[in-house]
Amino acid sequence: MRFPSMAIDGWQLLDGKEHHRWAPATFSIPTRLEREGLRAGDFAKLMFEIAVGDRVVVERMWVLVTARNESGYVGILDNDPTEIAENDELWSGTELPFGAANVIAVTERNENSLAMAELPPRRSWL
Question: What is the pLDDT of residues 29-42, one digit of tens each?
Fold first, then answer.
């Protein structure tokens, strides 16, 4: 499964592990086991790098995990970006793939999020 890319999609995911290495005292991330052990219904916070006109912005947004695959995870965006207008490419309900390295925070599933993970995305990835 292809991961998002700035050249193709106009946005991409940043590597949370890399940011943690740059500033371990101020940029904490979940443990490797937490990042690699996500299940459907869990929420993962990811950093999105988004092209906005002639600049690039970074937004931290929550994604609802819906499945695991050979590349990592598939999830549904559970936030709306604040730096761009509503669109069909990157808005709440958009399905996207991501890896454990992209995860910067985790919230465990509950009954509501498990039910939400069963719903179809507003826009499917590829």
Answer: 999 999 999 999 99
